[in-house]
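testing teh design pipeline on a random one, pls ignore if ur not involved
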């Protein structure tokens, strides 16, 4: 009898131990850790019981400053404590209000825990961050922050689930442009709404904000990044072919802030639009380009690909657009620097540079990389002499 009980106790103790050993072996020796970091986090969302958009940081100011100290270009040129203090915590990384499409072709309020930051834009009063649902279940959003206080203001839900790789602000017409994609036609699109519409938007309506302008872009495979400057939109495409050559294209606007349209003379099918915007100037770039910003004397390019590789920042002297195709490939940069991985878009407000990172999104948070949960702000006042 005693022997029988010993066997039962042995089984009770050993079976869990064997299971624990098997799980540990899978996790540490057979790629389980990598599977969780890359596949699980990118496919499944955490449940959320929040009914609001989170606005608390994932990392402390000290942790962010310590990460930045690992990058000599930043440490040599900027006061990193001021950079951290000037930066904005990205809302919605833990959870964001949004809409979820239902089976009856309607949408209802929901919460997303896999919002992935992409673009950044700066208005007189706000800093805007575009983000998409990494699992493809929820509508994309724009997170709005107060430019002066850094406080979270609201979440603006967009019409669809586009990657929204870029958002930019037309300060001449108080208009906000967003990069989108139409799966039915395969066309890149730029769509937008007024700043007044953004300020009036209320999530409690249960509806996405309405795009009041909608332009197909045929000359780019996708609209991956974009900036407004000099009464035009500059639009480019991200490619994983890091050594390949591509173009940033300038699309001129009318005095009313509309893109110039031209007949789509070689439509392949009835779904394609009758007219498209066409570029008036091109700039030659290398692949891997994620962000583009410019002012009257500098063009900034961000290149990044993957969580294991550092990002690069390239600075070019500004040139007039009427000199033919400009060469903004890597070898022509006047200055280059290394940044933390997964830099996405950049925005220039006078000489202050705003940089968005996606590394703190849930899809990438378990990866072994330097995570930045802020819109990093490199102000001219933070530069070292």
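output:
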């Amino acid at each position: 009898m005693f022997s029988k009980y010993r066997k039962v106790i042995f089984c009770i103790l050993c079976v869990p131990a064997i299971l624990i050993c098997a799980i540990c072996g899978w996790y540490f020796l057979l790629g389980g850790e990598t599977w969780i970091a890359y596949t699980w986090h990118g496919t499944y969302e955490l449940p959320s019981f929040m009914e609001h958009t989170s606005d608390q940081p994932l990392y402390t100011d000290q942790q962010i400053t310590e990460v930045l100290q690992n990058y000599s270009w930043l440490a040599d040129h900027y006061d990193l404590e001021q950079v951290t203090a000037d930066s904005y915590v990205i809302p919605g990384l833990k959870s964001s209000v949004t809409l979820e499409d239902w089976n009856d072709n309607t949408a209802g309020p929901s919460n997303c825990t896999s919002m992935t930051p992409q673009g950044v834009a700066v208005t007189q009063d706000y800093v805007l961050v575009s983000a998409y649902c990494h699992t493809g279940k929820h509508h994309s959003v724009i997170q709005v922050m107060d430019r002066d206080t850094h406080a979270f203001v609201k979440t603006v839900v967009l019409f669809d689930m586009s990657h929204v790789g870029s958002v930019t602000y037309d300060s001449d017409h108080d208009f906000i442009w967003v990069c989108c994609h139409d799966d039915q036609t395969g066309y890149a699109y730029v769509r937008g709404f007024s700043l007044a519409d953004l300020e009036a938007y209320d999530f409690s309506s249960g509806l996405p904000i309405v795009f009041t302008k909608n332009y197909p872009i045929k000359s780019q495979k996708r609209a991956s990044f974009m900036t407004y400057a000099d009464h035009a939109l500059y639009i480019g495409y991200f490619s994983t072919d890091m050594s390949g050559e591509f173009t940033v294209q300038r699309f001129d606007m009318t005095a009313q802030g509309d893109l110039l349209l031209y007949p789509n003379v070689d439509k392949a099918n009835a779904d394609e639009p009758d007219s498209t915007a066409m570029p008036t100037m091109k700039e030659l770039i290398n692949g891997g380009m994620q962000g583009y910003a410019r002012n009257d004397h500098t063009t900034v390019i961000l290149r990044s690909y993957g969580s294991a590789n550092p990002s690069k920042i390239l600075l070019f002297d500004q040139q007039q657009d009427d000199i033919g195709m400009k060469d903004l490939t890597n070898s022509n940069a006047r200055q280059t620097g290394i940044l933390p991985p997964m830099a996405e878009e950049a925005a220039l407000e006078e000489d202050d540079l705003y940089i968005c990172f996606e590394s703190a999104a849930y899809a990438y948070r378990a990866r072994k990389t330097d995570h930045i949960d802020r819109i990093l702000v490199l102000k001219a006042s933070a530069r070292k002499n």
